[in-house]
Amino acid sequence: xxxxxxxxxxxxxxxxxxxxxxxxxxxxxxxxxxxxxxxxxxxxxxxxxxxxxxxxxxxxxxxxxxxxxxxxxxxxxxxxxxxxxxxxxxxxxxxxxxxxxxxxxxxxxxxxxxxxxxxxxxxxxxxxxxxxxxxxxxxxxxxxxxxxxxxxxxxxxxxxxxxxxxxxxxxxxxxxxxxxxxxxxxxxxxxxxxxxxxxxxxxxxxxxxxxxxxxxxxxxxxxxxxxxxxxxxxxxxxxxxxxxxxxxxxxxxxxxxxxxxxxxxxxxxxxxxxxxxxxxxxxxxxxxxxxxxxxxxxxxxxxxxxxxxxxxxxxxxxxxxxxxxxxxxxxxxxxxxxxxxxxxxxxxxxxxxxxxxxxxxxxxxxxxxxxxxxxxxxxxxxxxxxxxxxxxxxxxxxxxxxxxxxxxxxxxxxxxxxxxxxxxxxxxxxxxxxxxxxxxxxxxxxxxxxxxxxxxxxxxxxxxxxxxxxxxxxxxxxxxxxxxxxxxxxxxxxxxxxxxxxxxxxxxxxxxxxxxxxxxxxxxxxxxxxxxxxxxxxxxxxxxxxxxxxxxxxxxxxxxxxxxxxxxxxxxxxxxxxxxxxxxxxxxxxxxxxxxxxxxxxxxxxxxxxxxxxxxxxxxxxxxxxxxxxxxxxxxxxxxxxxxxxxxxxxxxxxxxxxxxxxxxxxxxxxxxxxxxxxxxxxxxxxxxxxxxxxxxxxxxxxxxxxxxxxxxxxxxxxxxxxxxxxxxxxxxxxxxxxxxxxxxxxxxxxxxxxxxxxxxxxxxxxxxxxxxxxxxxxxxxxxxxxxxxxxxxxxxxxxxxxxxxxxxxxxxxxxxxxxxxxxxxxxxxxxxxxxxxxxxxxxxxxxxxxxxxxxxxxxxxxxxxxxxxxxxxxxxxxxxxxxxxxxxxxxxxxxxxxxxxxxxxxxxxxxxxxxxxxxxxxxxxxxxxxxxxxxxxxxxxxxxxxxxxxxxxxxxxxxxxxxxxxxxxxxxxxxxxxxxxxxxxxxxxxxxxxxxxxxxxxxxxxxxxxxxxxxxxxxxxxxxxxxxxxxxxxxxxxxxxxxxxxxxxxxxxxxxxxxxxxxxxxxxxxxxxxxxxxxxxxxxxxxxxxxxxxxxxxxxxxxxxxxxxxxxxxxxxxxxxxxxxxxxxxxxxxxxxxxxxxxxxxxxxxxxxxxxxxxxxxxxxxxxxxxxxxxxxxxxxxxxxxxxxxxxxxxxxxxxxxxxxxxxxxxxxxxxxxxxxxxxxxxxx
Length: 1230
Fold this sequence. Notes:
- 61% of the residues lie in helices and 10% in strands.
- By secondary structure, the protein is α+β, with helices and mostly antiparallel strands.
- The two termini are 14 Å apart.
């Protein structure tokens, strides 16, 4: 403190010169450390890219991918009919093997149709030599009895244990064998039913290759996973590694050497700092930057440890000898199969190990480069301008902890509701983990709304818009506000420091020169040694000149250099620490509040209030935990009742077969796909060539006839219940609305497509063979009356049961014929558990837990209402109890009740004896006299259960959203966590006029978009679709090329106008509203943080980390005494009165008094946060240019003035003490 005061007047002491002399190394280190880390990062990145040769790996892996991992978007040729990515059922496996895989791997002729030389046989994509053999592994699930309900057990008698699949003996195919020989082998195993069966869970195909052109080894792993719902998931993975790590690029060794030098330099620099701290007898502090340094060193070391292991494995002679032995023309694969398998297994194991090490190598390199990047930024803290970025990041991280907690709560609500709504149909939401990834990517603009809009249009719109508004527009804008606020504080602080820093640098530059290093001069070294050895005790110019035998001018120059150097070091240290001012400010505020708390007077009424507030204190802190637990338990319950992980493979396996899409593989069997139908002429080709062969199946994928239990199944796992229902709806005829004249004569008869009526309904038995079903469809076509010009809708309903997953499914195919000739095919799949409580052991416990939490919530709210009613008896009829957050609580209670009411109705429908009797009669044929009525009744029940299932999921989504907001509302007691909820409510108050303007502008562009593009584009064909399209456009989800194809000039004019007005202007206004609300809330909250933290600190110091003082008997005695005293007694409670009343010492009485005072202060703040939300909910929010309300509560104003006076007196007293101490130190020093 003294040196800092004296430095203001440019007074140098001997100690100052000694410190300047000893800080020479630190000065060099400050400027050289960033350069060292930059070079370290550069050379390590170069070494990593040399050891992981991406430029050679890319063409190698993509060449293999183009040959083996083909997809539907690739070119279709006669040799590649079935693509790997298009495999959708077990029946597609052998066509892919025979028509695509074998011609790509077992190649005998080149692209010129010339026979390949013997030494080039076994190559993929001309350059990838197959090493050893092609490995095929099959995994089979053992058969077990089905765990289904009694009513469905006759339908599905045999199931498989998919969780305990067993690996069969692998097959190894010689890459030198002719393609026809391999095809014959596949035909043989197909006939023997040994490779693919209904028990298959997966097929793994492993191909090891060597590319001599690039000197790379590569493993290609193809996996075909068969899921119990009939859904097939194809995956591929490729891993490459260099065969000669240092031979390909000699510069790799040089880069390793330089990286090692910088590694040792960094270790030495940090160890030197630690040694200096120990020498100075200072504790070694592991700051965040030191931890980043050592983590980066550990990552670099990990990289090189695994690189050495990989180099050793690659250099082993055994691997190369085995590869050479198998490639020797003299090696006969057929006669030495056992030896070849041993060689191949060893080669594959080694290559898989090297592939794993290569992945670890790349991950450790990524971690090391990121950590070195942060270390470079951290080393720039000495500069006031370069320090702004890092200071902003670190300051933002301190403020973002409560924000991230609230963000995770909101994110989890939308993730779980998205999984609940769309997980059964969309892979992106099929698991909780994938849902998290999808929703976060959605916030970054990487999301296709069509994949959820196709599931349930309006539900998806509500979910998507709600998620984008809450997570993106509100929370992301709050994140931006936090970062901007942190940047402004850091920037303002940096501006104050830049001027003195640049002045000090300029002074050092003036007296020393461009190198800014005065200690290179011999005279400076002599001066430093003299004062360091205590030979020179006077650092005046005369004393220096005399001791060093210099002139007075030279001595004065030395002093100027020391003074400038010292000033630069002080400023650098101050800028790098960046904590002193903030810490002093916070400490002063807390000290002032503690002084105020310590001098505040307590009365008997205050003690009574503190004693009565014990329960409120506990409830305030436990409510967030209770609400969070309620949210998590209900989410688990909803996801258990809607088994997404079972419904996804079931629904998609069924839809991939029945409702094939245009991106599927094109084969001779499927000429027309469901989604590709565009005119009336496409309906019958689709029915006869696609729908019937895949629905009415009598042979399996191996070509053998199915047994009786396996008949009536779609995709071999979905058992059709009864029959397939076909319904057509016709538009009744009406007179055409045309003018008289030639047009009226040309079009005399029209149809009322808005009011279609049922025309016909028939059923095709599930046991019918394809020929019978095709004959029925052909007869309908020949009649000419089933589908004609008046047909408005064709509905095909198919009810199935999957015993493997215990699911009932209903898939509805709907073809809508519109009067303009436009045909729109739509399908919808709904699955529901056939035994909700029989297949899940957690269903009943979770329901019971939710019921307990639900009843507890109602009891807590009613208890609070009764207490509030008793407190406000005789007061105005608008109690404080009726608030926005209370409404959210009761709405969440009602929504949970609605959810379980619908769930109960669904369970009653599933367990209905009538439904079970109908299924039994349908299976046994007991009601053969009226089978159609039985089928109609079953279809009606299944449709009703489908609607109930959808209602359950929507109710679950609403309940999760309300429980999320209820959890946020319970966080209002915390000054930091309250900022999010307060900003939300404050924004809502200000958004009413904005929404009016936004709706007007949106309506204009919605209507104009419908007028301009509605006749060509489906997304603008109606007003409702146009609204959804324009709003999605503002979220970045829009197909711009579609409107450009309609009319280019009009399209870009409309699009630019819409984006400028709706996005650039109005969305930025929304951002300004959120930022203004956040700034207002932050300002109001800032006044509560200091007393809150002071009271918490005081209570923690006195009562421990549990913050509960009432477990001490003295506190309970004081509370009992206050409760029994006369109400309204204004006698002051002092430590002396407590000691006398409780018969304790003065010290214990003082502790009891301070505990009570701190507890009461906390309760006042908590009650103010929970009950008096008017301060931050926007009712007193004064915008720019507005006038604040003038009504003032005099008593409240006097109370605040007294508080301000006490604070001012405390601050003045503290300043007086500090000034007296400072003057005493200066006097003693002088």
